[in-house]
Amino acid sequence: MSARLVLLGPPGAGKGTQASRLAERLAIPAISTGDIFRANITGGTELGRKVQEYTAVGALVPDELTNAMVRDRLAQDDARDGFLLDGYPRNVAQVAELDDILAAAGRPLDVAVELTADPEVVVERLLSRAQIEGRADDTEPVIRHRLEVYAVQTAPISQVYEDRGLLVRVDGLGSVDDVTERLMLALAAHLA
Fold this sequence. Notes:
The chain is built from nine helices and five strands, in the order βαβαααβαβαααβα. It has helices at residues 15-26, 33-42, 46-55, 63-74, 92-105, 119-133, 140-154, 156-163, 176-191, and strands at 4-8, 30-32, 83-86, 111-116, 167-171. The protein has a five-stranded parallel sheet with strand order 2-3-1-4-5, with helices on both faces. α1 crosses α9 (176-191), α2 crosses α3 (46-55) and α6 (119-133) packs across α7.
């Protein structure tokens, strides 16, 4: 089953983990703006320095930087027949940009999957991850700010996709395997 999909959900809902698992099962590339940002930060690129100014305080990277990277990535051959976007779109303006990118390629979006998770569980997950991975950007105040930013700027995307009949919500809590199975079942039902 190949698909063009976006994966939505608050920071810490398990999007990154599930994106790689879904991409493998669906044989499509997982495209994570967060991974692209972190690679640029680690590499000390100009883009990385710009991105770090925003991520260090829990703010979202400006649309023009993100849109350009996504447009370029979706034009690559491995994304021609399907892809999973993790971390994009993050706001309604980016939904419109993605619509334009896909319309120009003649490839509409198939589904938007939203992983749901209790905010307090998310905070605990991200604090634990920060300790394990040494992520300086995952302090409790920054995490709570990121959740607030998500609620205001990103959560409204769900309504856009729901109005289009493309939204599928899946509980992101539980074992990694259980969440993956719930996602696969939801996708199979939606894409059937």
